[in-house]
Amino acid sequence: QVQLVESGGGLGQAGGSLRLSCVLSGSISSINDMGWHRQVPGKERELVAKLTKGGSTKYVDAVKGRFTITRDNARNTLYLHMINVKPEDTAVYYCGADYTVVGDTVVVGRAWGQGIQVTVSR
CB–CB of 59/3 below 8 Å? Predict the structure, then answer.
C-alpha cells in the first residue's frame, strides 16, 4: 500500500511563512510527478506546485515567487515552502504522488494524502 501523510499546517499570518511536509511510504518501484494541490469549499481542487522525477517544477501563477516545492529523497519527504503567505492561500492542501509499480505488469497510480488545513490571517 501507498501512504502519504501531511504535516505542518495550521495558522499563519499574512506576510509570514509556513512549511508543509509530506512523508511517502509503501512499496513503489518509482515515483513520477509529485505535487501539492489545494481546495477551497465550493471550488475545484487545483494544482499549486508540481515536481517531476527529473527535477522540473511548475507552479500556479498565484503562488509563483512565493511557494517552493522540494523533495528529500533520503527521507521520502516532499515539502512546500510558503513565504509571504496571503489570506487567499487559505485552503486544504493535499500531497499527491504519481507512481509506478512493476510486477506482472506495469501499473501507474496516484495516491493522495488526507489533506491539511492552512489558514492565513491578516
Answer: no
Number of H-type helices and E-type strands within the chain: 0, 11
pLDDT at 4: 94
Each residue of 5-35: pLDDT tens digit? 999 988 999 999 999 999 999 887 888 899 9
Q: For residue 64, how far is the Cα from the chain centroid?
A: 15
Give the burial string for 35-61 (b: 16+ CB within 10 Å, else e).
bbbbeeeeeeeeebbbbeeeeeeebee
C-alpha 76/C-alpha 86 separation (Å) is 28
Instruction: Please name the residue that has the C-alpha cell 519527504.
Output: 77
Positive/negative CA dihedral, 7, 74, 89, 49: negative
| Burial class for 7, CB neighbours closer than 10 Å (0-12, 13-18, 19+) | middle
